[in-house]
Fold this protein.
Amino acid sequence: MKYLCSVKTETKTEVKKNDILRVARECFARYGFEKTTLDDIGRMAHLNKASLYYYFKNKEEIFMQVVLQESATFIGHLQMENQALQGAKNRILAYLSARLKYYDEVVNLHQLSVESLQKLGPQFDEFYHNVQKEEKEFLAQILQQGVANQEFSLHNSPEIAEAIMTVANAIKHEAYYNSKAFTVREVDYSDADQKITFIVGLILQAIDKK
């Protein structure tokens, strides 16, 4: 089974970009996304703004890459920990709940406003394409194991995994797009967690062999 945190040899450009992302992560955690400037990042990275533009288009791209790195690492660990759980249904629901909790924590860490999160939403989806592809494959593997253990009856696990991810993402997006809160810290994801558990539970019940 492959994981998102696989090791590979980095080029000099990738090393430099990762150095920038490391200090940018510190800036975002210290000042928040809105208050962090490219000058702040450049100063900590010992680079001028022109040099930063050589590696990244803007602050938003740097932020996306920071979150993407964090997410890939977290999801890789989450997938490994998830394998210790028993039962395919339990594993899927636990994974989705932990995933939503992490999302809540990461946007709080970087002190995003709801307005910024809404603006960055489409860009998040673009940057998360490869991560979500890995997640769908992971869920499909759990479904296939459920079939092998006679928990589920299905022959289209990739499509079911796609449907589960679509539901989870849609409910997550709904939580902050419909929120009247100003800061992300004020957005309550508990209802979203319950909705995901309920709707995905119905999907899994439909393929349950019991």
Remarks:
- The CA atoms of residues 42 and 52 lie 7 Å apart.
- The domain at 63-206 is CATH 1.10.357.10 (Tetracycline Repressor; domain 2).
- The mean pLDDT is 85.
- The chain is about 75% helix and 0% strand.
